[in-house]
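hiii, so i know i said id send this last week but things got crazy w the move. better late than never?? heres the sequnce for the chain we talked about at the cafe, plus the structure i predicted for it. fair warning i was half asleep when i ran it
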Amino acid sequence: MTDWESLNQNVVACTRCPRLCAYVREVAAKRKPAFADWDYWGRPVPNFGDPQARLLIVGLAPAAHGGNRTGRMFTGDRSGDWLYRALHKAGFANQAASTDRADGLRLIDCAITAACHCAPPENKPTPEELANCSQWLIETFDRVPARVFIALGQIAWRSVVVEARRRGWYLGTGPKFAHAATVPLSDGRWLIGSYHPSQQNTFTGRLTEPMFDRVFRQARELLD
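okay and structure toks below
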C-alpha cells in the first residue's frame, strides 16, 4: 500500500467529529428522492487524484448528496460539473464528466482535497471540526509535491494560508482572499484564490465560467 492509499484509508476511517459522523450517516439513510436507488457513501470522503501532482485544489467539504453520496470529491453535484469542466479544459483531467467513482475520470498532474472531509449540515463545519480535520490537510501537504494551490472559497483559503505559515512558506500578513488573487509562496510555490463553484455563486453570476477558467489557466501558466 502506498502512503497516498494509507492516508485515504485513514481519512475514511476517521471518527473525530461526532456531529459530522452522525449527519453523513443520517443523510445516507434518508437519501434524496432523486437518488433513492443509490447506496450512499456516508463516510468521510478521501482525497482524489494524482499523488505526484503539482496542482493541489483545496475545497470546503463534500456535498451531502454529491461527494457524500458518491464517495469522491466534487462528484455527482453541480459544483463538480463546474470544476471538472474547467479542469478538463485546462488539461488537468481526461474528461469533463464526473458522475460516480467508476466513470473513468482521471486527474492529470492534479489532486483534490478539502478543509473538511465530511459533509457538514448547511455546508458549515465548526471551527473545532475544521481543526480536527486539519491533520489530514497536513498529511496531504506532506505527500503531494504541489507547486500551485487553488483554494475554493474563503475557508479553504484560510486553511492553506495557515498551513503555508506553519511550513514557513508564507511569512507576511494577510493575504486577503479574492477571486483570482495570486500569492507567491516560498521556493516557487503559488496560492491562487477562487470563488467556490457552489450554486449560490454560479446561479447568481458571482462566478462565471470565464472567471473560473481564468483561475485554472493561471495555474497552468505558473506550472509551465
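btw The chain has a mean pLDDT of 97. thought thatd interest u
miss u guys!!
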